């Protein structure tokens, strides 16, 4: 028997209250740590000017932007309040986006949606293809430690997305390439009506943190991408597996490295949203309005008569500042 949309929405809202709301209530107030100042003393600096354009609540992400009719129906019937869409980058599995236009961004914003723009560009040279092995992570199907059988999404493709992401490794000049792709991320976001102050999330596949050369190359690329995005007044974020890109950023933070992402969207498919209990991150790092947890993927849901295959996330993080 098919679950009715209203009952499905009610069940999702109960999930939010039971699993997500307590986590959000534990978030310190913005005054506890403004960007550019320590959150809890030395060792936990934020990395960019704060933004007042943030979202707290359930979000979904999808490879190909749905039509405005579908977005309207889901806005009325679903528990979600934000949508993540791969909007640019040469590594996308869904480069064709017939609905994703400047008008689409403005209209969904008017409906009350908040937009999480995902840039899927060059990938770590040691990125690995999906494989059913313990420790395999984000952007690619795999099994999360402690979550047997839990699969992960394809980067930029999002759960259930058609096609396979092209192989787009970072080249021999990662800082130059990162700066160039950061400029592309900002330019494309601006063309879609997303103003300065918008968060843009760089999406990375899972990669081998034991490969020192690959780790250096990837970090150089990410830092250069962040610098360019930040230089142009946007907020750089990172979307990656908790045990790959996100753990890498945490290690870099501990080492005192600068030019790190301002927000982290970590993938751990454990079916339970938890922003501040992530093992890969220190509990006070990237804490104030700086985290998104994608806790499930390849989930098919139906609201308002429209069925989509999506990833589910709990968010307390910056979103796009949309020009109306």
TrEMBL record:
Biased composition (Low complexity): 132-161
InterPro entries hit by this protein: GH (IPR017853), Rv2525c-like_Glyco_Hydro-like (IPR015020)
Organism: Streptomyces jumonjinensis
Identification of the protein by name: DUF1906 domain-containing protein
Pfam families: Rv2525c_GlyHyd-like (PF08924)
Sequence ranges assigned to domain Rv2525c-like glycoside hydrolase-like in this UniProt record: 73-310
SUPFAM superfamilies recorded: (Trans)glycosidases
Region (Disordered): 126-185
